[in-house]
Design goal:
Strand content: under 5%
Number of helices: 3
Largest sheet: none
Distance between the termini: 87 Å
Shape: elongated
Radius of gyration: 36 Å
Order of helices and strands: HHH
Structural class: mainly alpha
Number of strands: 0
Helix content: 55-70%
Length: about 110
């Protein structure tokens, strides 16, 4: 369970970073007016690689989300189904005996 949680958190961060690395739809317009500076991933650009990486990360994210949901609902249902522990009935508590103090006799 802990391993799935760790994988889930790592995939969340990776998915955020991958999406932020991708260029927007208007990024190709800049190449028409002054050349392309996006040659880090080759002349074709990073769109093919990053879109495939986004797909893989999204699938892993969905799978880990479903596994964590299934595990948490299963644990909750086993807690609900547990029978309460039977304990012996408690003895009724008796009030402590108070000493009887004699009252002073009335004066005549």
């Amino acid at each position: 369970m802990a391993m799935i949680t760790i994988i889930h958190v790592l995939v969340c961060f990776a998915l955020i970073l991958i999406v932020l690395l991708q260029a927007g739809k208007g990024a190709e317009m800049g190449a028409a007016f002054g050349g392309s500076s996006q040659t880090l991933f080759g002349s074709a650009g990073a769109m093919g690689f990053l879109s495939k990486l986004t797909t893989v990360a999204a699938v892993v994210f969905m799978i880990t989300s479903l596994l964590l949901t299934y595990a948490s609902t299963r644990r909750a249902s086993t807690v609900i189904k547990e029978k309460p522990v039977q304990t012996a009935p408690a003895e009724p508590q008796k009030a402590p005996v108070q000493p009887q103090i004699p009252l002073p006799e009335p004066k005549k």
